[in-house]
Fold these 4 entries.
Entry 1:
Amino acid sequence: MSEQPQGWRVVVIANVLPIVEPLIETVRGMGHDVVAWVLQRRPYAVDMPPPPWGDISDKNSPQGVNLIFVREKADLAGILRGLEPDLALCWGFSWKIPQEALDVPRHGIVNQHPALLPRHRGPIPLSWALREGDDVFGVTWHRMDAELDTGAILAQSSIPILDEETTMFETGPRLVPAGLALLPEVFEKLAAGDPGQPQGEEGASWGGMLDEDYATIDWSTQTAREIHNQVRAWNFAFGMGPVDGPFAELDGKRVKVTRTLLTDPGDGSPAVETADGTIWVLEREPGE
């Protein structure tokens, strides 16, 4: 690997504090100046619970960077022009970034998408990896273009999907380091002017929001693994989408199943027979 570039002005575009903290630390450790963290402003008119790490403020955000809340995506280009970045890194940001903003940084904007692109493009790729029964969660850094998750690939890797992990808070500590480990390769390619590997359409798929067709569990026709993956897929969707789920009949009541295991946890959790064996329901909520 050739000598790494240093001294770039880098902007981080992200909404998730547990991602931003190690990302900024890693980029700084590579010799670059992270000049700003840009994140979406939470709509004050919507009654939304704060994220698990709390609302972002000067008290809990990384020090030494400008903290910029953006009211709408149309403002991104002007904000970036004022920051004069060499590069912007996007990770965990839900807006489609306009082309005008993509054109501002000297080396463009590079996004981390948790899938093996072109498989599982879209907003909830981890959910679809589970729904499709994949063996791994992917990690892809790609150049951003005007569409979602279609830009040229700069680096990829993956981590195995583990049966015992049921939420992002369990998987994240493995997934985030896998993405950070690829950054030296990404920066080297950017410095060399490498355009990246264009994505083909072979194997491409869309990881869109979960809907009614996946919102009900049928203990008698689905396998234990299918149900376990279904429950986890809804957890990894973070409540986004037009409907909630998954719901099932348990002990004569309609419940929302939120955590399961394929092995007996030994704590007295209900055991339910499925089409091919037993699954254990660790957590549930009253159905609607």
Entry 2:
Amino acid sequence: MIYLDYQATTPLAPEVTTAMTAVMDHYGNPNSAHRIGRIAAADVALARDRVMAALGRDEGRLIFTSGATEALNMAIIGAARAAPAGRRRIVTLATEHPAVLDTVLSLRHAGFEPVILPVERDGLVDPDIAEAAVDDRVALLAVMQVNNEIGVIQSIDHLLGIANTWGVRTLCDAVQGFGRLPTPDADMIAVTAHKIHGPKGVGALWLRDGSDLPPLMHGGGQEAGLRPGTLSPMLCAGFGVAAQLAVERRAGDLAHVEALWTRARDLFADWSVNGSIPQRYHGNLSIRRAGLDAARLISQVRTVALSLGSACASGSGRPSHVLKAIGLKDDEARGALRMGFGRYTRIEQLEEAAALINEAAAMQRAAA
């Protein structure tokens, strides 16, 4: 199987497997005061330091969670509950992950007004529209750094600057950019391990000093009182090593991704790219072809793992909200594929996959 679905998840790094196996024997509860508990607590502390270092942060708090979805919910709902009475708007973009969009929309029942900003055909928000939407009535601006479906890098520094002008709290979903791009200067940052060759089931929310949140769950004082429950030292250790590797191998990983991107653009030269070409992460190739049934193509190319779009929404029956947000018609969206590649993808694998995909697309066209 040729794996080209790096935006959904990434292969576990061998070094991560080794680290998790070693920590597996540290069975103590990291909140226990005895020596076995302190060993587990040390594993968690080292992992926290490594993730903080990968974020480029030496201040603030890092709260371990079950993943980015929990981190985003914690940040959005917590920021809403902590907002002053006069700030009842929450601003986000139409192309955000469902973990952000659905959570923001759910707050209507608590008296908040979701403000969902449209994007242009390239997937980028118009700065004038953003400036008009953010003012002293806004409690939170939530914006993704790298779009998980089309790979577009949002003009996040400019958006955060607008929010800072009005004293608006900011949240960045940095899942797809973490370990690859500089970390945005948001008040809250959500990341996860399994997008950087770490284990599933562990993520984190970084909070700037002073960005206090009320807890969503109760039952213990773990994680600075924000996230009760016993942490898994094994998962935390895997996350920490994956983060450390992302920093150490960043230059090599990005160079490899660039070579893969350049070759992929040649191999799919007669396909249309979804979203901005100059302002995107090159480990994501979202493409479409007129008249193609992409879902049928995926079922025909069984030796290649690729996707239509977000894995988180693939079982929902909903059309891609991201492709609709950039203005694609239904027939255009039906012809869209997403390929993701990275550290462990070989050029020859990409070439073999492209041959199979292009052959299947040609067969569809011939049968039409």
Entry 3:
Amino acid sequence: MEEKAAEEGLAKKVLEEDELDELEKLQNELEKANHEATEYLEQLQRSQAEFANYKKRNEREREDFIKLANAALITKLLPVLDDCERALQTVPDNLRRLTWVEGIFLIERRLRMTLEEEGLSEIEAVGKNFDPQLHHAAIRDETTDYGDDEIISELQKGYKLNDRVLRPTMVRVAANPSEKSD
């Protein structure tokens, strides 16, 4: 009986060691699985972040492309707008009341409004100081009637599209004469 009890104790001990080994093995596998799950989660999060960045970059590039395409088209339309303005400035007063002349004024106004809706704006020039980023000096007049580098007149309107210069304003700029020594 003692022998049987000793065998049972030994068997129990072996079973406990086997269970401990099995438990340790399962804990190691669980740690390994948790580690892999953490790595997969981090990879997934990185992939999601990369995809979100890709989508933002793609949207930004698309917007830039649209702006560039608009800029190219609007730049081609500026001479048409200039021609309309010049033509309408030469219409004699006695013809301004004719319906077809009023229609041309309407067309010019609608063209201007459409371009403004797309972000086009005129560059202010007359009375301002010359800025090479916004103005193109076609003529420099020596005069004391205006301040040095003050814009006297506008020869051709300049335009911006969403704060980007499409065409600088062509201007006449005052230059104060320098004093000459004897």
Entry 4:
Amino acid sequence: MGRLFVIPARDEPVAVILRRGPTTWYHLILWETRRDAITHGAWIKGRIYEDKCDLSPDGKLFVYFVHQGSRGATAFTQAWTAVSRPPWLHALVLWPQGTTYGGGGKFTAPRTLWGVSSIGTHPDFPFPTGRLHIAEKPPEPRPQGPIVPDTDWSGVDHRGNVIYSKGDVLFRRKKRGDVVVADFSALEPDPQPAPKRATQPL
């Protein structure tokens, strides 16, 4: 069984769903909340730290922190922060990190990040000066909505409806009752290369 964590964009009806499981796998899913359209993306074997991730206000960029340990066999370290185009993890800029201490970032504007710097990036994934910017102050807290008891995650969608997850199932709370938005229980790891549109430079 998996577990779901949702990161909504602040200004657009779109969200990233991080599905953890089975075991050490993570899967990225793009959710267009207005139509409840689902687009499946990257699979990675490792640990994505959900609280160190963020989706840009327009939903077009994703900053994430991942730890793969020695199994990753990358040319950089075992943990890193990167910016990608959701629902893919192809790094457009990448900061190597030796440990799981620190890392991650938050968007204050569509191409402005807080919590990272323009230095210390990997030479193969340099900071795109002029196309990505560093914020001096953290973003305003996101609206959280009520906490739904006995759930893995809860929050609100772009209309202010309560959304929550239990295991592999995503729910929306409405006046007539709670409805299932999506059930991901049948998913199995299926890593695929990122499409060309997700690999274009910033």
